[in-house]
UniProtKB/TrEMBL annotation:
<feature type="transmembrane region" description="Helical">
    <location>
        <begin position="100"/>
        <end position="123"/>
    </location>
</feature>
<feature type="transmembrane region" description="Helical">
    <location>
        <begin position="143"/>
        <end position="167"/>
    </location>
</feature>
<dbReference type="InterPro" id="IPR001626">
    <property type="entry name" value="ABC_TroCD"/>
</dbReference>
<keyword id="KW-0472">Membrane</keyword>
<feature type="transmembrane region" description="Helical">
    <location>
        <begin position="257"/>
        <end position="273"/>
    </location>
</feature>
<feature type="transmembrane region" description="Helical">
    <location>
        <begin position="12"/>
        <end position="34"/>
    </location>
</feature>
<dbReference type="GO" id="GO:0055085">
    <property type="term" value="P:transmembrane transport"/>
</dbReference>
<feature type="transmembrane region" description="Helical">
    <location>
        <begin position="66"/>
        <end position="88"/>
    </location>
</feature>
<feature type="transmembrane region" description="Helical">
    <location>
        <begin position="229"/>
        <end position="251"/>
    </location>
</feature>
<keyword id="KW-0812">Transmembrane</keyword>
<dbReference type="InterPro" id="IPR037294">
    <property type="entry name" value="ABC_BtuC-like"/>
</dbReference>
<keyword id="KW-0813">Transport</keyword>
<comment type="similarity">
    <text>Belongs to the ABC-3 integral membrane protein family.</text>
</comment>
<dbReference type="Pfam" id="PF00950">
    <property type="entry name" value="ABC-3"/>
</dbReference>
<dbReference type="GO" id="GO:0010043">
    <property type="term" value="P:response to zinc ion"/>
</dbReference>
<dbReference type="GO" id="GO:0043190">
    <property type="term" value="C:ATP-binding cassette (ABC) transporter complex"/>
</dbReference>
<protein>
    <submittedName>
        <fullName>Zinc transport system permease protein</fullName>
    </submittedName>
</protein>
Length: 286
């Protein structure tokens, strides 16, 4: 059975590819602002907090009957948003050492995640799918959540694009010009938390930050403008997701791994291409 036939035959593949295509847009789109603002490690911190929420939800589903039917994604989203709020609070407490907030929250996420995994008596197939992504585990409910998060992202970017652009390149000027920088950054963190939590079904908690940064790094090697970087980041993100899902389907691999490896291969190809083109130009001048 070919991939196209399987997509038309199985609902879970339809869900996975639809969710993957959405994530391939929103993760690099938000990732451009994250990279430019030098906040790449925040994605890692929030992904580990999301892990704690997912592990906690899986433990509660084993211990409390009322949680058995709850989608773990909801507690993962709640934990990720809560983590983003805590990062902002810590950044305001340590004004001269704002970067301390990231390792503190990251460590807390790993710590609570390890505790809940231990209480849940180790790894389960469900938790493995959340860690590294799963093609077969994406439900209609998961797809609906991802679509809802995408709507929030597009609305946020369209409303605050100019403000985010100014904040990304000149934070001091943005504050001096009267922009509500603190509140915009706070909302940006919450939206980032939502994207990270929503992407984990496809890419996996431990790899989702890669999809937000590696396509952006690839685009920055080719584009000379901000909007061009956004467009190319989305293109590379979509290529990575589609190629990664196809590879995961045919070889029965974790989609998060194949998506990230594909994005890394694209980055290496672009770096090599740029070096080759520079060498050829130098040779032509000589």
């Amino acid at each position: 059975m070919t991939m196209i036939d399987a997509i038309f035959s199985y609902e879970f593949l339809q869900n996975a590819f639809a969710a993957g295509l959405i994530i391939g847009v929103i993760a690099p789109l938000l990732g451009v602002f994250i990279v430019v603002r030098r906040l790449s490690l925040i994605a890692d911190a929030l992904s580990h907090v999301t892990l704690a929420g997912i592990a906690g939800s899986l433990y509660l589903s084993q211990s409390v009957a009322a949680f058995a039917l709850l989608n773990p994604l909801f507690l993962g989203i709640a934990a990720s948003v809560f983590g983003s709020v805590l990062i902002e609070r810590l950044r305001s407490l340590y004004k001269h050492y704002e970067e301390l907030a990231i390792p503190i929250i990251l460590s807390a996420g790993i710590g609570f995640g390890a505790i809940f995994i231990s209480l849940a008596e180790g790894f389960s197939s469900d938790l493995f799918g959340y860690l590294f992504g799963s093609v077969s585990a994406v439900s209609r409910e998961d797809l609906g959540i991802v679509a809802g998060i995408a709507v929030i992202v597009f609305l946020f970017i369209s409303i605050f694009f100019k403000e985010l652009f100014v904040l990304s390149f000149d934070d001091e000027y943005a504050k001096a010009s009267g922009l509500p920088a603190k509140w915009i950054h706070f909302l940006f963190m919450i939206v980032t938390a939502l994207v990270i939590a929503g992407s984990m079904r496809i890419v996996g908690i431990l790899l989702v930050s890669s999809l937000m940064t590696i396509p952006v790094a690839t685009a920055m090697r080719l584009s000379k403008s901000f909007k061009g970087t956004i467009i190319l980041s989305i293109v590379f993100g979509e290529i990575s997701v589609i190629a990664g899902l196809v590879t995961a389907f045919y070889f029965d691999l974790a989609p998060g791994g194949t998506i990230v490896v594909t994005s890394i291969m694209l980055l290496l190809f672009v770096i090599g291409f740029k070096k080759l083109s520079v060498s050829m130009k130098k040779g032509a001048v000589a």
